[in-house]
Amino acid sequence: MNDYFELGPIRPPSEAQSLLLRVTRNCPWNQCEFCHTYKGEKFSFRSVAEIKEDIDSVKATYDEIRQLSWKMGFAGELNRDTLKTIFNHAPYDQAFQHVAGWLYFGGAQVFLQDANSVMVKTDDLVEVLRYLKEKFPFIQRITSYGRARTLAKKTVEELKALHQAGLSRIHIGMETGYDPLLQYMKKGVTAKEQVQAGRNVVASGISLSEYVMPGMGGIRWWREHAVETAKVLNQINPDFIRLRTLYVRNDMPLYSKVESGEFIRLADDQIVSEIKLFIETLDGIHSTVVSDHILNLLEEVQGKLPEEREKMMEVINRYLALPAEERLLYRVGRRLGYYRSLDNLQDLSLRRRIERMIDEVRPPNQQEGVLLSEEAEREIYRLMENYI
Asked: What CATH number does the domain containing 259 carry?
C-alpha cells in the first residue's frame, strides 16, 4: 500500500491494459508544434537502480494484492470483487490501483514510459528488461515509444539485443513523411531518417507501429502529406499504421498559427478525403491500418493490407456519399462518443438525441442540409478536446 513508483503522463491507446514503467522522464526533443504533453518539463534519464526499485515496488504491490485476495477468500485471484475493494477504499493509492488494474486484465503487457525510452544506453535497457522479466516471468509483451532519429542511429544488432531481452514492440510517431511539413512542425527528423529508423526496427524482429496524423498538413499541404507519408511507409512495411487525427489545443504552439490564419485546419470531410488518398497510395506492404482513437471520425477504417483495402475504401466512400445532414449527424454523434460505426446512424433513439443537440446550436430559421454557423462548427470541434 505504501510501495510508490513513478507513473508518466501518457501511453498509446493500445497499451490501455499495460503496466506503465517509467524509464525516462518527459521528452528529449519537446519542440513539436502539435504536442502539448511535455511543454515546460525537463527531460531526464532514470538510473537503472531507480527503475529496478520501481520494479521491486510493483512486485511488492503484486504480492500484497495476492494476499488481499486470499484474505477475501478468492485464493489469490484478482476478480471484480477484489478490484472494487481496492478502488473504493482510500488506503489504496494510484500506483496500487494501477497494478491492480494491470493484473485484472491479465498482467501480460508492459509499456516503458516516457516519450523515447529507447534513448537509454542499450546495455542499461537490456538490464532493465531482463530484471523485469525475472520478477514477472508471465509478461508476454513489452513495448515503448521511440523517436525516429534515435532509432535511425541504433544499430540493428543493438535492437536485436533489446528484442532478445524482451522488447516486443516500438511505437514511432512518424506523423508525416513530407519533409517541408516535418520542418514546419519542428519534428527534428527527416523522411530519410524515418525510413532508416523503421527499417532498423523491422530488421531487428521487433514489431513496429508507425503513427500517422491525418489533418496535419492543413489546407496548404494535405495532398503532399497524404502521398509522401504513404511513400515513406511503403519503404518500411511496418506491422501497424495507426491513424491519430490532428487536434489543436490552445496550449500547443501550433494554436497561435491557427489563430493568426497561418495554419488553416481541415474540416472533417476534408480529412476523410485525405485519408482516402493516403490509403490509395499505400502499395506493396502488408501493414495493418488501425483507427484506434476517438479523435478519428471513422473508426471502421482499419484492416490488413492489401486484402482489406477495398473494405476500408467502402467505409470512406459510404461516408462521403451521405447527404450533408447525415454527415453532420454522424460527426456530432462521434464527437460526443455515441457513434463508433456508420451503422449507428440507424439507432433512432440516439438519432433523436443528437438531432436535438444540433437544433440547439443551429441558427434560428436555418434549414436542414445547410452547414452550421462558424461558431457551431467550433463547438463541435471543441467536443474533441474531451478525448485528448
From this structure: 3.80.30.20
